[in-house]
Every structure is written in C-alpha cells, then in structure tokens.
Amino acid sequence: MLRLRVKTRDGKQYPLTECLCGDSTLKDLLLAVQVITLILPVRQKILTGYPPKVIRGSPESTLSSLGIQGGELLIVEEADPSTNVTCMVQESLPPSSHMKNANISNLNVNRDAALPLKAKPENANADAGLPFKCPTGMLLKKVVPSDNSCLFARVYYLINGGESIDSNRLQEMRELVANVIRSKPDLYNEAVLERSNSNYCEWILKDTSWGGAIELSIFSQYYEIEIVALDLKTGILNRFGEDKKYDHRMIVLYDGVHYDPVYMETFEGNNIYIFPTTDDSVLHQAKEVAMEAKHSGQYTDTNTFRLECKECGITITGEDEALAHAKKTGHSKFEEIHRN
C-alpha cells in the first residue's frame, strides 16, 4: 500500500492510507482525493515532487507508471479542465463507474477537519478560516424532476457545487449505503430497517427504491457534514449530524415524498451550496422558503396522497399502504396521481 499525504489549498494536510497501491490507477487516486477535497476528478490539478510538477496521464495509468511512490506529498488544486493543466489527459472519466483497485466505501481517510467548502465566499478572509458568515444573498429551492433517486442526486448535487451526475454516480452512492448497513448489522437491524438487513441492502441497490432518514444519516457521517432536511408540511428541521459539530451543512427541502436542494444566489452573482454551521441565519431563511412553499401548496400529505403501482396498476392511498404493498409484492415503482 502507498502511504500518501494530501495538501489542500488552505495548507491543511490529510493522510491517505490503506486504499491505494502501485497498481492502482490515476482514476482511483482522483476518486480518493475527491473524498477529501470534494473536487471532481476532471477538475483536479495534483502536483508532486520538487520542484512540484503536475501529475498527468490517462484514467487507467497506474500510479507506479506515473512515478508516484509511498510517502509523497500531493498538492491538490482545482482547475478548469479547458486550461489543460488538470491530471487527466482526457476531459471526462471513462464509462466504467467502478474503481479498479480501490473501494471508495472502504477508504481509510483520517481527517482532522471537515471537508472544505466547494465555493468559498469571495468576501471571506482566506487566512481566517471558520467561523465566518455567508455573504448576503437569496436562498432558493432548485426544482428538479421527481424520481426514486432524488435524495441521492440532491446530496451529490450539493456536495459537488451544483454539478449534475449520471446514473453510475447514483448507483455508487447506493452501494455506499448498502456497504455501511451491511457492515453494521447490530445498528441497522430489522427493528430499524423494518425488514432484514440483507433484504434492505438488496432493496436500496435498486434504482426504483427511495432513500430517507437512514440514508441521510449515513451520508452525513460519510461526508462529515450536517444535513438539514426541512419538512415543508410541518416546518420541522431534521438535522442529521448536528451532534457531531461538523463545520459545514447542506439543506434539502422535503415535500412528503420528494427532496429538493437549497442553495444561495448571492447578490454578487455567485452560487453557494454548502454553508458554515456557525451561521444559523441560513436556517431562518430556509424556514421562510419552506413557509412560502407550504402556503402555495407545494407539499404532499403522505397520509392521503394517492399512488398508482406502475407494476400492477393498483391504486394506493397513503404511505403506509404503499409500504405494505411494496413489502408484500416486492413492487417498487409508484407514481403519484395528481388531482386535476
């Protein structure tokens, strides 16, 4: 195994151990670095050696062929792919979504601080660090199509600064959840999951299965970030990871069946997707957004809404009936019936 250190733009260093070896690929390395920095692989500029030089190669180049050895310090920066200074010669990842020699869910990354902000506010002092307040702006809900993977897509969208993702990335997030649940059968037992541990792991891997509080809790721990899910109907803030005292938070709105991401459009024209937990003014603004959505009827009463099972055609009323039907038949494709 290669023992490497990652140095970020703010000067902090993070050990990267027990996940990469000489036969690991450049793609493996970039995905491992993404876990620490939140910088997408295609935007990573990594320098090593003295004087520092950019590591460049194809996604399948091995680390040994690129001259990367154990004990090296990797200086990571974010760069525009069009500038031709990023690590990958190709501008996009290959179709395969799985790493060759590393499992992202098993990375042993020791971090003494939470993940850095994807887009740091322009008016923040670069040397001051946290705490700081967000710049002035308007909190907005991004309306996105409703599907069974909306929770996974919205978390990824916010973590990666508004980047859209493909189905391969969504499936990797489902695999992460399944791996965590499978590894902790005592914590994630039948009483918690309302089905056996193995059955739940099999179920959540399907792209027709929806995520909820369990998945938000796992993502909060994995990304080391507080996730606030604001219920539009009740106005309740469900804060996952609040007790961990993470430095950063993201916010999603929950309308009863669907999750929408919340971001800030600053008056300077920038978008902010991740917020410091030291500034609770964002939560007050989020409640105002939720109240406006509630008054305009933008939520679903899960006790009375009507669903159609797209696999057998039966009409179901309420979430409890839908869950019972899914458990009895194994069906998982539902569509809400909207009243005209």
From TrEMBL:
Keyword Nucleotide-binding: no
Protein name: Ubiquitin thioesterase OTU
Pfam families: OTU, zf-C2H2_OTU1_C
GO biological process: endoplasmic reticulum unfolded protein response; ERAD pathway; protein deubiquitination
Record organism: Scylla olivacea
Catalysed reactions, semicolon-separated: Thiol-dependent hydrolysis of ester, thioester, amide, peptide and isopeptide bonds formed by the C-terminal Gly of ubiquitin (a 76-residue protein attached to proteins as an intracellular targeting signal)
Main location: cytoplasm
Keywords: Cytoplasm, Hydrolase, Metal-binding, Protease, Thiol protease, Ubl conjugation pathway, Zinc, Zinc-finger
GO CC list: cytosol; nucleus
Location relative to the cell: Cytoplasm
The protein's role, per its UniProt record: Hydrolase that can remove conjugated ubiquitin from proteins and may therefore play an important regulatory role at the level of protein turnover by preventing degradation.
EC numbers on record: 3.4.19.12
GO function terms (MF aspect): cysteine-type deubiquitinase activity; zinc ion binding
Keyword Zinc: yes
Domain (OTU) ranges: 139-265
Signal peptide (from-to): none
